[in-house]
Each structure stands twice: as structure tokens, then as C-alpha cells.
Amino acid sequence: MTEKIVILDFGSQLTQLIGRRLREINVYCEIYPYNKIPALDENVKGVILSGSPFSVRDPKAPNPDLSAIKGKFPLLCICYGAQYIAHTCGGSVNPSLAREYGRAMLSIKSESPLFADIPQKSQVWMSHGDTIAQLPTNATVIASTDDVENAAYQIDGEQTYCVQFHPEVFHSTYGHLMLSNFALKICGCSGDWTADSFIDSCVADLKAKIGNDNVILGLSGGVDSTVAAVLLHKAIGSQLTCIFVDNGLLRKDEFSSVLASYKDMGLNVIGVEAGKRFMDALKGVSDPEQKRKAIGRTFIEVFDTEAKKIKNASWLGQGTIYPDVIESVSVNGPSSTIKSHHNVGGLPEEMNLKIVEPLRTLFKDEVRRVGRALGIKNSLISRHPFPGPGLGIRVLGEVSEEKLAILREADAIYINALRNTPAPEGWQPASGAAATGGTETGEGYLTLYDTIWQAGVILPNVKSVGVMGDERTFEYTVALRAVVSTDGMTADWVHLPYDFLAKVSNEIINKVKGVNRVCYDISSKPPATIEWE
């Protein structure tokens, strides 16, 4: 069985980041809502309490029963967690005179295993409106800042450690080491949860769960479904059948090139060309949400038809990853719908298939690491995320074959330029990415594509006046989009070099008939979303 640390989520936006930091030191962890504490068996090595948007003084604040945890397991309490322990164990928490937010200098006051190998002074990140005015009687201050006396404390006679700052964020300079000290030294985790160990245990679990049954999996060409397919294939071989649907909304030559890639991997993949069916469903539809629903509904119909041709199928494989799982059981329930999502999770109940999700415990960058450990070629593993509805939501307004043709050509020029342009010195790879430039010759340098989380071209339903060859034109505008992110929940636009943008703009206008203007989107998420629809 896998040893693990349990993280109890009080609704902080940073809870997933705690999990990611632990995974980075090869410690397995699971995140649960504070009001759904799991059974704590011998595999649980420690527990972490997250921050929260609530004040402990709020009548509606999270108020879990920690009697089975505190004093019985190593416990690290972060921000709200630290205030909750003080508030419920005889101390007091009061409103701060001024909201404590941003960088602060931490001074270690007392020796503690939590601060092993950390300098006596280091930078941490504060983000709270309350402060711990008085500690419980059996607590000892172990660190302070200029403005926060009780910045960190521990409970005497217990392995309970509390910090009012956020060690999980980048701005806490030695925060990663604090989390490492807690997991490895205090909890005694072995730190051996690697991609290889995950593959071994996952394959064994899949073999035991599926037995001699057959599995159907909907491939999209993306990283998640590809890695899920290879894991399943490693476990059950020919019992897996994959279905790759061409919805007519894919990038230029994507259907044929991805099918060829899968063929080289030995996967049993059925390619279904259904573009006309999707275009018929989209005829006359211009509302973004209605387009997504039309695409999703048609996909379900096509997938269901093909799946019924496969005999004795008992399981439906999906590329669900851990952020999807966390969101579905979040403290406040699933988030309000910004856009509906398109995946095979909406398949008809009458298919009567059990669900198998090999990647449901992994973050996106971990999926990529597992993919590389499985030997999947980098051209598939390094692919940017691509929306399920495809170019259907990058053509704004009603979708037509003419608009799709324009968008495909412009998109191909942009993406190829990103793939073939070395990144400027000092640029960093995107989360989970690896160098792809020069890999055929063994050079392995970073390209602009490698430094970006997601990129693509948008075709707004906008035409403008231009001049080409001394003649007036009235043609489409296209917008280039490129963002950096870790999980897609937030994103910032990429400061692409001006000369690169100029070159791409010139090539698109000269080579793509129907376009006379190119713009670059410099909006972040929030307030914008990554996709325009």
C-alpha cells in the first residue's frame, strides 16, 4: 500500500499547490474537504490543514472534529489551520490592525524540526486578515516576523506545527524545505513515490480491477487520454479498444498525424471521420454555449454508435486527472459553470459501462512525467492542451467550412513558428514541458512552444478594411493567443518577442487568403478566459 499525507481543504485557492509541492518531493498525498475526513489507516503518515477565505470567528467558518488527528498524527496547520488550532485550543484570534498580506521576514525563535537547515531569517508570504493574539497554554512560539509575533508555533508534547504564512507559495523562499522537513523528517515518509513506482502500482491495480473484461477509451490526441491509453494497454493489451473521432474541428492534418502516431505505439485505435455530422449539428448555431452543447451531444452519439460495435465491453476508460476529482468534491461543491465541458463523461447511461480512470490521482505535470517514463514520444507528451470542442469555439459565431479553412491555415503557421523558434535566453519551460527543439539531432534546446502552456489562433467574426496590392480589401481579423499557467485555473499572457510576432503576422497575411489583420491577445485569466468562447 502507498504511504500518504492527507490534506484537509478549508476552501483555500492554494490547497492544490500544497499537494503539488509534496508530489515534487516524491511524497504521495490526497486532498479531501474538511467535512469529509477519510478513514486514517496505517498508510497515513501525517495531515495538513490548509488555509481558508473564512475567519475562524465567522459563525459559518469550517469547524471540523480533529480529535482523531491532533496529537495522534503529525499535523501541519497552515494559515487558517494555525488560527483554528489556536482558536479551539485555548488561545485567541483577533482581527489584524492591518491586513497582513505579502512578503515578510521570518525570524526563527526556537529550534524545531520544521525549520531544519533553514536560515535564521528568511522570506515568507503572509495572506490573512486575522492574527493569533494568544497561543494555547501548551504551545511554544518557534518563529516571528516584525508584525506577527506568533508567526509559527508548535504544541508541546505533540507533533503539531502551525504557521500563519503560506510555505507552499513561491514567495516563501524556504517553504519547499519546510514542507519537505514535515513530510520526510517529521512524518517519516520515504519520498519514493515516482513515475516508475506509480506505473508499477497502477498497472497491477488495473489488471486486478479489469480482469478479462474489455475496455473502450475515447482518444482525443491530447496528453491525458494518450497516457491513460498507454497505461491501460500496458495492463490489459488487446482488451483495450480506442476510438478517435474526427469531429471536423481539429487542427490542420491532425487526424491523420495523430492516428499515425498511435499506430506506431501498437494501440488498437478506430478512427471515425464524422466531420459532416458535426457541421450539420452546428448549422445556424452562433451562441458559444449552444455550440459546445451541440458538439458534445454529437460526440456522444458518434461515440455511442462506434462503442456498440465492440463486443463484451464492460469498462469505459477516461483521462480524468486529479484537479477534476478535487473540483467535483470541493468544499463548496462544483464551481459555477463558466463554460460546459465536452468529454465522454456524458455518455448515455444505457451503455451500462463501469468507469476506469488510471490518472485520477495525478496532476497535469505528473501525467507528462508518467508519459515519458512509459516511453511515449515527446511530440505527444509536450502537446499543449486543446479544447474538446476544438476549433468550433475558436471560430467566433456560426462555424462554416470557409472560416475553418482560414483558421486552420493561420493556426498552422503560428504553431509551426512557435515550434521552430528557439526561446530567448533565460526563458523557462512550461509546467511539465521538456525541450523539443533539435531533438532529431540530439540537441534538445527550448523552443517558444516549450515555454508556453497553451497557444492558438482565434477567428473573431470581424472584418476590417485593408490595402493589398494597391487594392482595398475587406477581410477577416485573426487573434493570436499564448498563455503560461500551471493548471489552467489562472493564466498570464506570454510576452512573445516583437520580431517573432511581426514575422508570424506577415506570413499569415501573405499566405492565408481572407485575412488582412493580425492581433495579439494580452489578457490574463482572470478576468478573461484562455479560450474566447
Description:
By secondary structure, the chain is an alpha/beta fold. The two termini are 44 Å apart. Helices cover 29% and strands 23% of the residues. It has three domains: 4-186, Class I glutamine amidotransferase (GATase) domain (Rossmann fold), CATH 3.40.50; 195-381, Rossmann fold, CATH 3.40.50; 394-520, GMP Synthetase, Chain A, domain 3 (2-Layer Sandwich), CATH 3.30.300. Residues 333-345 have low confidence and may be disordered. The protein has 13 helices and 19 strands. It has a nine-stranded mixed beta sheet with strand order 2-1-3-4-9-8-7-5-6, with helices on both faces. The protein has a five-stranded parallel beta sheet with strand order 12-11-10-13-14, with helices on both faces.
CATH topology of the largest domain: Rossmann fold
Biggest β-sheet: count, sense, barrel? 9 strands, mixed
CATH class assignment of the largest domain: Alpha Beta
Percentage of helical residues?
25-40%
CATH architecture of the largest domain: 3-Layer(aba) Sandwich
**pLDDT averaged residue by residue:** 89
Which key phrases capture this entry?
single chain, 533 residues, alpha/beta, Rossmann fold, GMP Synthetase, Chain A, domain 3, 9-stranded mixed β-sheet, 5-stranded parallel β-sheet, 13 helices, 29% helix, 23% strand
